[in-house]
Amino acid sequence: MDELDLLKKHWQKNSDFPKVNSEEIKKMSHKSSSSIVKWIFIISLIELAFGLSLNLLPSPEKEYSNFFLNFELASLLVFYPVVIFFIYQFFKSYLAIKNTDSTKVLLENIIRTRKNVEAYIKFNIYYFAVVFFIVSVEEISMDIQKAKEVTSFLVFKEVCMFIAFAIIAVLFIMFAKYIYRLIYVRLLKKLNVNYDELKKLDSE
Amino acid sequence: MHQKLEQEFVFLLEENQNILHKICKLYAKDEETHKDMFQEMVIQLWHSFPKFKGDSKFSTWAYRVSLNTAISLFRTKKRKISTVDWNESFERLRYEEYDMHEEEQLKSLYAAVRNLNDIEKALVYMYLEDKDYGEIAETLGISEVNARVKMNRIKTKLKVMLSQKGEA
Predict the structure, then answer these.
(1) CA B49, B52, B58, B60 torsion-angle sign
(2) Where exactly are the structural domains of chain B?
(3) Which regions span the lipid bilayer (chain A) (predicted)?
(4) A87, A170, B122, B162: least CB-packed within 10 angstroms?
């Protein structure tokens, strides 16, 4: 008799468990879930709102060039449809999460929901990097245009300012990425490990 | 209607609660986690219960949702969450004393099974519950052949774990 069969014999007659009564079951069923999916949902909503709110920040009232104003309009025409697409994809995949599916499908749906938000965050970072670059170039060219005399010192000063802003932006992104990994690596570790195990099983 | 549904759910779950306890026994590392996991399973089952149409047996549906909760949904808490207070009967369940009166071999077997990964534990659970490979494969979302192959590997793995423990 192999080991598991010995365990099976014991397992099936094992009934030494606490008895939770109907009142307790009723109370439990009304408790709020603290599942990984609920956490992912809450954090994702915060991220979606954060991305949107960044774009609602008021821009300083200045006389920008026509090129810049056209760029601003074009960027918003790209930004909002893409964001709406991400939000739609997020809710679609979130609603597809069903605890009655097979384990593999359930894991796939949770991971897909999360990946949608990750892609959204990446899009936001790239979008703001481009906007940052264009705004910086615009500001520099405005400063140069306004100056009575274009000296090499002025150009040097503007270039230094651009580099300083770029460094701050890169540091900010690195910090955000670090915090992000800290939250998600921990939250998703179990899911990824289990999903990889199932995938490995089917690819052998 | 809601009340009737709730009554039905509570009645069925009370009758079948050992399914949940058995899964918790494999996955939870201590009594607190067992309680938290059990509660999360009840919440998950209750959320899905309106869609339970009785196509399958309640027990089959319940073990599937509970396994999914243990493998994919349950998050081990660092701090205490508000868990419904259980009656004193839980006192009977002491993890360190689980198999106090059982043979050494059984103790080692339980310990070895608890050391397996989440997917392996699910396979072992269904094997111990005498589920056929078709059902095991469907529950996990893998092929039947792979379920069989994996189960054989787990048996070998357990043998090795037990023999290593024996030598130590």
Answers:
(1) negative
(2) 1-98, 101-168
(3) 36-57, 77-97, 117-135, 155-180
(4) A170
Other Cβ atoms less than 10 A from the Cβ of A80: the count is 12
| Side chain identity, residue B72 | S
Q: Is A202 an interface residue toward B (CB < 8 Å)? A: yes
* CATH architecture group of domain B1-98: Orthogonal Bundle (1.10)
Instruction: Give the CA distances from residue B83 to residues B80, B137, B155, in Å, rounded to whole numbers and listed in that order.
Output: 8, 33, 36
Q: What is the mean pLDDT of residues B123-137?
A: 95
pLDDT on residue B80: 56
User: What does the block give as tokens for B142?
Assistant: 């893998």
CA-nearest residue to B162 within chain A is: A3
User: Given an 8 Å threshold on Cβ–Cβ distance, is A28 in contact with B84?
Assistant: yes
Which amino acid appears at position B164 of this protein? Q
Query: What angle, 0 to 180 degrees and rounded to 10, lies between the N-to-C axes of helices B118-128 and B2-27?
Result: 110
- With an 8 Å Cβ cutoff, are B45 and A25 in contact? no
Q: pLDDT of B20-37, one tens digit each?
A: 999 999 999 888 899 999
- The continuous run of DSSP H or E covering B39 comes out as helix B31-48
Residue A111 to chain B, least CA–CA distance (Å)? 10
**Three-class SS state of A98:** coil
Summarised one tens digit per residue, pLDDT across range A86-138 is 999 999 999 999 999 999 999 999 999 989 888 888 888 888 888 888 888 88
Give the integer Cα–Cα distance in Å for A78 and A76. Answer: 5
CATH code at B101-168: 1.10.10.10
Please state, in angstroms and rounded to a whole number, the distance separating the CA atoms of residues A79 and A122. 13
Q: Please tell me the distance in Å from A7's CA to the nearest CA on chain B.
A: 7
Chain-chain contact of B68 with A3 (C-beta, under 8 angstroms) = no
Do residues A93 and A109 touch, judged by C-beta distance below 8 A? yes
Distances (CA, A) of A103 to A109, B37, B50, B141, B146: 10, 17, 20, 6, 15
